[in-house]
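User: You have something folded?
Assistant:
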Amino acid sequence: MISLFIGISNLAIGLAYAGLGVIGAWETISLHRYRGWSRFGIGFVLMAASCGPHHLVHGWHVLQGETVSWQMLAVTVIGLPAGLIFVGLRLERMVGGQGERVVAASADRAAMLATAMTLVTGLLAAGVLAQPAADLFQVLCTSAGLVAKPIDAAVDFMSVTFVANLFVTIAYGMVGWYLADCQVRRYLANGFWSLSGVALAGVFFTCAQMHLIDATTHDDGLLLIFDLIGIPASIYFLWVVKLVHNDSVMDWNRRPLVGAAAAPTRPSPWSESPQR
């Protein structure tokens, strides 16, 4: 039952990433003449191009009998609400709805929720990283004496899978941090939270946690391909999010909503006339 839940959930998450990636690519390409190229949009598409197939392959393997852990079950349950909220708001906007909500939760409640999620994240990380390393041996007491036997469920901390997933974990964790920091600044300035913004930050935090858990699993050739693709995608996306966070890039966050971002055909009446 647990494997069925985790497998179907990962397939749904993969389809959601793929769908959002297609929507992001279409909007970035179709609207670039009016609003310029969105670096954030391009980065989001690259992220979805690696995370979407990763979850699809992982979900399929789980349904085929791959071993699952309680950590994977926990992070799947934790990450589903944020993912469902963000995808639901995005779909609502596509059909002409509002597509956004503001939440007037107090700072104390937000701090309590953030603290609880941090503690849970720490427990999950400790659970997966506390596993023995692949080069360790356990000693068994048998009738023939002490026998050293390699540990079957060991973590290879030097494998390409572990290093690639750990890199993506750090990158997407930093993306979630910058997104969450933007929401805190917005609350301090306006007194409310953006539901889509908080949900997106939660998506990246849980995405980072999932990659940390995947880093401790055994090597898989197909998953490793998408993990390696995720390294440059995560680097670019983190770079873009950092620029937007610092407000040092001209992106859609600073483009006009209507019309083309171009110089006017003639000067305004109050502008200085050129020297003749």
Helices lie at 2-30, 32-35, 39-63, 70-94, 107-129, 160-190, 195-215, 221-245. The chain is about 65% helix and 5% strand.
